[in-house]
Every structure is written in structure tokens, then in C-alpha cells.
Amino acid sequence: MKTRLGAVLACGALVLVTACGTDDNSGLPGAVDFSLDGLHCGRTGTLLASGSSAQANAMEVWVNTYQANCEDSQINYKATGSGAGVQEFLQGTTAFAGSDSLLTDSEIEESRSVCRDGGRAIHLPMVAGPVAIGFNLPGVDDLVLDAPTLALIFDSRVARWNDPAIAELNPDADLPDVPITPFHRSDGSGTTDNFTSYLHASAPDAWPHEPDKAWKGHGGQSADGSSGLVGMVQQNVGAIAYFELSYAHQNDISTVRVDTGASEPVEATVENSSNAIAEAEVTGTEGDLALQLDYATREEGVYPIVLVTYEIACDRGNAPETLDLTRAFLAYMAGEDGQRALGEIDYAPISGDIIQQVRQRVDAMA
């Protein structure tokens, strides 16, 4: 049976990444075929998860595909932001959490009280993609910025679009004399953590703040979630903000090319972010798959502002009533069909060796 997007998206029935009646910021194409042959379905029931809004568009495809083929199962994923998702997981109210930043040592220790039988939370890298810098500047479609200039803009120390620092990077652009309005996330966000990690690594003198899920820069205005930032950029001339590439493309928002020191500024694309993921190193131990990214890369064709969204789950000691469904759904996400779907909606699949390890960890969950 072929199920089309319009037929399966219904309020209250499936994953809802935006509330019913609001603007649809999904990165999905107009008609998506969710049918698959041979998808393994776990035990029927309901699975609760929450967290990263960066993966909301990917989760929309994954949930609808799984439910179209496993009709007696319901997956409810709330795109509440990484911070809130991790908190709910550590409170034991969800089966797994989506997070765009790594758990702290104290959070891993806290997870031992949620994961039974001596288990602990592990990071399962499931989806990656570029954090695009979107802007609203009529008459300017092509804009190049580097890390020091971005740091000064988002720290409210470069305040107008015709500032000499911006003009030097864009000699052929007709930059208007209008105020810059930088927007940042108001909620605890792994996207913020990754964006500020890039600023801190690539422009430490211009960005003195430590990377964090909570915004530490000076000034600017805030909005809730990636969709909130998209709305602010659309509504305000002179605005600039950071959000996942799928949101920029779906809403026709121009994005910055980043001067990394390579021979050419690097565009935010799936291919260029995949190049960054290929350079990542696994730094987790004891079955954990936490990755280390090189935010300060100068390699050709490597986009530096990339986030990896992890599914945070117990390696063992999962709730018996949801273990089978959790394992089946995560196995689909990490499988060839789940990963193949990512490139069609502006996300980057996880590289071969790493995703093979993810599949092994999911299969071993107990």
C-alpha cells in the first residue's frame, strides 16, 4: 500500500513537529511515498520520545514511514529542543531523546538511575547536516562571511550591514546601510551548542564565550525552536539567524557561504557537510559513539558548521514494555532505507563505518 504525505499527517495521530494550524516548516517534498518492502516491525504499542528540533523533518519521514508499514504501532516524537528532550529522558518519561550535543559526565551518571540492570545512556549518531546561516537582505542574494565576522555580528559588535568587515568579504555586493538584527534560540538547543562551538573554535578572539546549549552572546533577539528563528528571519529585513538547511530551503531563505580559509567560500550543502562528517572521530568508549568534529577545518569543500543529532538511549536496562519497539524503530532509522531518505530532505547520512557501529549498538540493546 502506498501512503501519501497528505493522507498520513493528522493532528494527534503521528509525530507532530509543529502544532496543528501553524505554518509548515517541514523540509519534505510535496508527495512522499512511505511504503517499504520488508520493514521489520517491533511489538505493537506506543513509543514516546522528544528532543532535537534539528532532526524534526527527518523524524517526520521516519515516523510516518514506520507507521505506514507497522500500522499497530504509534511513535510520538516531540521536537522540544535537545535540552528538554534530555531532561525528559533522564526523568524516565521517554524511551529515547534526540540531542544535537553530547551529554555531560554528570548526565551520563544520572542516566544510570533510569537505565536498569547497570545500564547507562549512550550516544547513537543518527543524522547530520549543515547549520545554515540564513539572512533577509533585499537585493543581496550571495553573501560571504567568515567566523570572526559572524562572531562579531552575533555578539552585537558589528551592527550594520555595510560595515567594513562585511564589505571586505563582499566587494561586489551592494550592501545596504540597515541595522543587523541577529536572532538566537531562546530554548536550550544543541543547534546553539554546535554553532557556538564553531565560533569558539574558529574565532576564539572574537567569540570569548564558551560553547553551550544556552545562548551566551550579548544582545540580539531570541525565538523558540528552529521554526521560530525561520519566522523571525522571514519577517524582519536585516535579520540573520542559524538553523538547519532543510528549514532554509523549504522557506526560500538565502544562506551565507562561509570563508574558512580554503580557496573558495563553502556553501551549506549536504555534500559539503558529509565531507565534514567523514573527518569526524569516535571519541566515546565502552560502546558509546560520541563524535569529535573539526569546526576549525580549512579543507576544500568542507562546510564547518555541522551538527550531528544523537539518539540518546540506554545500552541496557530499557523498559521491557517498550524495548522491542524502541529497538525496531531505531534499527529502521539506522538502516539503509532510513539513512537513504535523509539526503532527499537536506540532511547528511552518517558515514558507513560509523553507521555500522550504530546498527550493532541498537541490535545489542537490552
Tell me what you see in this structure.
- The structure is a single chain.
- The chain has 366 residues and is α/β, with parallel strands linked by helices.
- It has two domains: 5-127 and 310-363, Periplasmic binding protein-like II (D-Maltodextrin-Binding Protein, domain 2, 3-Layer(aba) Sandwich); 131-276, D-Maltodextrin-Binding Protein, domain 2 (3-Layer(aba) Sandwich).
- Helices cover 33% and strands 18% of the residues.
- The chain contains 13 helices and 13 strands.
- The protein has helices spanning 5-8, 56-69, 82-90, 105-111, 147-154, 164-169, 190-202, 225-235, 245-250, 270-278, 320-334, 336-340, 352-363; strands spanning 45-51, 73-78, 96-99, 121-135, 144-146, 181-185, 221-223, 239-244, 254-255, 257-259, 281-282, 291-292, 306-314.
- Strands 1, 2, 3, 4, 6, 7, 8, 9 and 13 form a nine-stranded mixed sheet that branches.
- Strand 11 (281-282) and strand 12 form a beta hairpin.
- Helix 11 packs antiparallel against helix 13.
- The longest helix is centred in the last third of the chain and has 15 residues, at 320-334.
- The radius of gyration is 20 Å and the shape is elongated.
- Residues 1-31 have low confidence and may be disordered.
